[in-house]
Amino acid sequence: MADSAGDKPQTESATSYKKKSGKPMFIIVVVVALVVGLLLGTVIGSVFLQEEQEGGALDRILSRGELIVGTNVPWEPFEWYNYTSQKYEGIDMAVVQAIADELGVDLVIKSMDFEALIGAVQTGQIDIAISSITILPERAESVDFSIPYYVANQAVLVRDSANISNEDALDGKKVGAQADTTGAYYVADHWVDGDVDVDFTPYPEVSGAIMALDSSLVDAIVVDTPVANRYANDDSYDFKVGFTIETNESYGIACPKGNPALKMVIDNVLERILSDGTMDDILVQYT
Predict the structure, then answer these.
(1) What is the pLDDT of residues 108-122, one digit of tens each?
(2) pLDDT tier at 158 (50, 70, 90 boundaries)?
(3) Domain spanning 151-250: CATH 1.10.287.3510
């Protein structure tokens, strides 16, 4: 079990009224306000009651004693598997550990293909998904997202010997990216279907794209800026960041739709670690 436990979230609605005599119109207003308040409370309460009656996600997590989280590794510094410690580590892993601690349950990580994460949340194979998932309207049609917990841009990672410092320098070059990521979307939307003539190859995992760059099978790969910086600073590779693309993408945790109680717990934890300095400490530790 986690070291610290959190109570199951509850909703409360309290309204204070001060009585004044000799004001018929005021009495009418008070009555109307009370009726509206009761109706609003009934609607809000029914949402949480329906979730609990139908075996909502939060109730299942608490009953099971485990928070099952889907992710895709490796994607350093956000998530990777440490074969020495035999544990999943990284920024995202620290974030979901904080959520599990708040719930007082064990954390269980399941690694899967990135493109399978949203569907796994939908079908209940996992409770939530975290893997540097950019909040996109099309993804939000299938899952509910937490509040953002990190903002990133895209970066073009190249070999040290490359003379690539802008988009024009990529004309006629071979470019890679992990499939179904926002980096891959950017290449397809802005370069392949745009004004830059690139030969684009999507890879199932970022490790495949890295190997292709290291083996000169591609001239550049597009990944989130923190990931690019991680590889550029790794002495195992002769890589550098050619240039960055300002996309201002917000990462969120994918939650099953129609489970407001679970989302509220997650949002509350994120708000806390973002405001009390915990997230800053996590970033210092892993970047």
Answers:
(1) 999 999 999 999 999
(2) very high
(3) no
Q: pLDDT category, 195, cuts 50, 70, 90?
A: confident
Helix then strand count (H, E) for the chain reads: 10, 12
**What gap in Å lies between CA 198 and CA 219, rounded to an integer?**
10
Going by their DSSP bridges, the two strands 128-129 and 66-71 should be labelled as parallel
Give the bridge partners for 239, in sequence order: 159
**Which residues, 6+ apart, have CB-to-CB distance to 278 below 8 Å?**
98, 272
Residues comprising the chain, all counted? 287
Q: pLDDT, tens digit, for every residue of 234-253?
A: 999 999 999 999 999 999 99
* All CATH 3.40.190.10 domain ranges in the chain, comma separated: 57-149+252-286, 151-250
CATH numeric code, 57-149+252-286: 3.40.190.10
**Residue bearing tokens 């004693």:** 65
- Distance separating alpha carbons of residues 39 and 267, to the nearest angstrom: 26
Return d(Cα 168, Cα 184) in angstroms, integer. 18
φ/ψ (deg, to 5) at 38 = -65, -40
Beta-strand (E) ranges in 83-216?
A: 87-89, 106-111, 128-129, 144-145, 150-159, 174-178, 199-203
For position 55, what pLDDT does the model report? Answer: 62
CB 269 within 8 A of CB 98: yes
Which tokens go with 54?
């139908």
Whole-number Cα distances in Å, 222 to 66, 199, 266, 281:
35, 13, 30, 27
* Letter string b/e over residues 189-228, b meaning 16 or more CB atoms within 10 A of that residue's CB: ebbeeeebebebbbbebbebbbebbeeeebbbbbbbbbbb
Cα gap 42→47, rounded to integer Å: 9
